Amino acid sequence: MRTIITGVGHFVPDQKLTNKDFEKMVDTSDEWITTRTGIKERRILDKNKGTSYMASKAAEIVLEQANISADEIDLIIVATVTPDMPVPATAALVQKDLKAKNCWGFDLNGGCTGFICALATGSQFIESGRHQKVMVIGADKMSTVLNYQDRTTCVLFGDGAGAVMLEPSIEDDQGVQDFVLHLDGLGAEYLNIAGGGSLHPASYDTVKQNLHYVYQDGKTVFKHAVNGMTEVSELIMERNKLSAGDIKFLIPHQANYRIIDAVAKKMGLNPDKVVININKYGNTTAATIPLAVSEAHQERKIRKGDWLVMTAFGAGFTWGSLLLKWAID
Ligand code: ACO
């Protein structure tokens, strides 16, 4: 038994924050941001809405596309680093929004690799035969954890959500074929949000020290991201006896255009084989991959039978790759 994706959707807020807007906020330029990251603009969600709002919107599109009612969902997995609140899980709030009466669910924190972790996890529930319909969502409201006075991080991220429906298939050569996932906590010091957890609970001091914002040692993360994403993507292709020519698209996490370009070059993939939308949305953390898949599907770039390799690197460090044969016509 295999796990296939039977519906895909995404949601991004209407409000845009452009590089020109940032020129008025911090000491930066459109030229620096464009050449160093590939980002031109990103989306920002209203102050009075949380991550679950975007997650539910994306999930509603998926249900419609897969022609499934909310009652049929067995399990909801939400990959996010920006839950609406520490407790309950964002999955619970999505369940309430969708009125999905017959499911359970949980949140998964895999940093920017969260969606691949959630897709791998969801596929195991399908392949075990225990579940028939699993909603996997990647959603983040990064605007809530950014210091808009710190030019080294605030220009990089945006808000968004993407989701897929997983169902079983008896066709062995369809759907999720393989995945490789890694975790290395030595990376924690280079990329984190240190405040607000049990080690540094929110207090006047944690706020004063900006511990509730994303901290990143960009150069260190950059190096590890290029090496990590290349290594797992090459491994997954090699062990499934696929060459660059067999792959329709590499769908990488969208953190920096230069990272994506370096990974694609190392893998011997032409630029037209890489899905890129970082220019429009920046880094939406757990949402980048389902957002990219959803747009590519909407634009009819991906067709049934196409081989896709997804790869990501993020906080943890976490990194991984997932090989999939697309099953929607
Ligand atoms: N505008 C203008 N100048 C800037 C800006 C900015 N927005 N940001 C940094 N600079 C300056 C720096 O201060 C530095 O100046 P200095 O030389 O005078 O000290 C100079 O530009 C170069 O800074 P670097 O940090 O060396 O720039 P770099 O080329 O490495 O790019 C970046 C920084 C974009 C952060 C890059 O390192 C990167 O993309 N890193 C990886 C990001 C990533 O993959 N994250 C993982 C996922 S995130 C998650 O899991 C939540």
Global mean pLDDT: 97
What's the shape? Answer: globular
Largest sheet: 5 strands, mixed
* Low-pLDDT stretches: none
Q: What is the CATH top level name of the largest domain?
A: Alpha Beta
Write a compact overview of the structure shown.
Strand 12 and strand 13 form a beta hairpin. Helices cover 33% and strands 24% of the residues. The longest helix has 22 residues, at 218-239.
Explain the overall architecture.
- This protein has about 325 residues and is an alpha/beta fold.
- It folds into two domains: about 1-170, Thiolase/Chalcone synthase (Peroxisomal Thiolase, Chain A, domain 1, 3-Layer(aba) Sandwich), CATH 3.40.47; about 175-325, 3-Layer(aba) Sandwich (Peroxisomal Thiolase, Chain A, domain 1), CATH 3.40.47.10.
- Helix content is about 35%, strand content about 25%.
- It has eleven helices and 13 strands.
- It has helices at about 20-25, 30-35, 50-65, 90-100, 115-125, 150-155, 205-210, 220-240, 255-265, 280, 290-300, and strands spanning about 1-10, 15-20, 40-45, 75-80, 105-110, 135-140, 160-170, 175-185, 190, 215, 250, 305-315, 320-325.
- α4 (about 90-100) links the parallel β4 and β5 (about 105-110).
- The longest helix has 22 residues, at about 220-240.
- It starts with a strand and ends with a strand.
- It binds acetyl coenzyme *A.
- Acetyl coenzyme *A binds near residues 33, 81, 155 and 259.
- Acetyl coenzyme *A binds near residues 111 and 259.
